[in-house]
Amino acid sequence: MKPNLTLNLGVRWEVSMPWYDTQGKIQAFVPGLQSTQFPLSPTGLVFPGDPGIPKTLAPTRYKNFAPRLGLAYSPGFSDGVLGKIFGGPARRASGVVRHLLHIG
Asked: 29-49 pLDDT, tens per residue?
């Protein structure tokens, strides 16, 4: 690796909590399943409260783990137009931090 390139590796955990309607006025389509909440509805159209159908219509997933990769690159421009756009070298920023924090 180079001093101006950072590589981050890790694992991400994300809970998938589907939204739901507080009044239960949502529906889902499950082929071949007949609703017991609304028996006259078309086959496949199911509602919260039907057997096997939670109020969110989808289960909450707690086992969502995924790899995570991050890259950060600092081109290190110090002169010219790009130096003015990107702020030049890092030592200028540390001077600003020292001034704001009244250090040394």
From this structure: 999 999 999 999 999 999 888
Condensed to tens digits (0 to 9), the pLDDT of residues 77-94 reads 666 676 677 666 554 444
**Nearest residue to 48 (alpha-carbon basis) of 39, 58, 40:** 58
User: Which residue bears the tokens 């199911």?
Assistant: 46
pLDDT band per the 50, 70, 90 thresholds, residue 16: confident
Nearest partner of 11 among 67, 71, 69, 70, judged by Cα? 67
Q: What are phi and psi of 8, to 5 degrees?
A: -115, 130
Cα–Cα distance between 77 and 74 in angstroms, integer? 8
Instruction: Give exposure, 59-69, as e/b (b: 16+ Cβ within 10 Å).
Output: eeeeeeeeeee
Q: Could you give the CA distance from residue 37 to residue 52 in angstroms, rounded to a whole number?
A: 12
Whole-number Å distance between alpha carbons of 55 and 38: 15
